[in-house]
Design brief:
Length: 213
């Protein structure tokens, strides 16, 4: 008998999404009834992995629908229309449901979530060429011990994770100080990111990674 986390080869993509959206595995720990928030389609080439939805995203049901999303779109060189309307972009956070807050700060993504859903969703999106690992939780799940001592160390070592992964800081307004202290990120990494995203989303291109500068 299938376990919830098993990849089911005979399942359609729509059936998989329906199972994700009906998930209640950690409902007892969430402040609201589960509302998994993701965008995914079988032809996705770019996967964006953030932490977990905040309150505003939970309420609207639209991922990255907040000031962090505005800066992320600027980093990617994408309009809102392209970001939400291109089926080659998948958005699957480390925790799919809003985990609540403590003392005004968002709680971490529920630890059950990524191991349960990411392997299944990735298996159903075989054309993904690049996964953006946004923030420490996404980097911890995907890179494990390959992470650096700090987030800056991990992001600075981005070439070592190419072409499959790109670790990035979270584009939260709270991270403005980090971006100021680490100007190399915008100067060195963002141009490469924009070029890579442009290639992945250009019609007729096979999405292969270009040579790193
Ligand atoms: S956070 Fe993840 S594991 Fe928990 S109920 Fe939502 S989808 Fe399921």
């Amino acid at each position: 008998m299938n376990q919830p986390g098993d990849v089911r080869k005979s399942e359609t993509f729509a059936e998989l999404l329906a199972r994700v959206r009906a998930c209640t595995v950690c409902a007892a720990y969430l402040p609201n009834p589960p509302r998994p928030i993701l965008i995914a389609s079988p032809g996705a080439r770019l996967l964006i992995v953030g932490q977990a939805p905040g309150r505003r995203v939970h309420e609207t049901g639209i991922p990255w629908n907040d000031p962090s999303g505005d800066l992320l779109r600027e980093w990617l060189g994408l309009t809102r229309e392209a970001f939400y309307g291109d089926s080659r972009i998948a958005i699957v956070p480390t925790g799919l449901c809003y985990p609540g807050t403590v003392k005004g700060s968002d709680l971490p993504p529920r630890p059950e979530c990524a191991p349960l859903w990411h392997p299944q969703l990735r298996a159903a999106m075989p054309d993904i060429r690049l996964t953006l690992l946004i923030g420490a939780y996404a980097q911890a799940y995907y890179l494990g011990e390959r992470r650096g001592r700090t987030l800056a160390d991990t992001v600075r070592a981005w070439r070592g994770f190419a072409p499959d992964y790109l670790p990035m800081p979270h584009p939260s307004p709270r991270n403005r100080g980090w971006l100021k202290r680490n100007p190399w990120f915008e100067a060195e990494v963002l141009p490469v990111l924009r070029e890579r995203v442009g290639t992945l989303l250009s019609t007729g291109d096979n999405g292969a990674a270009p040579e790193l500068p």
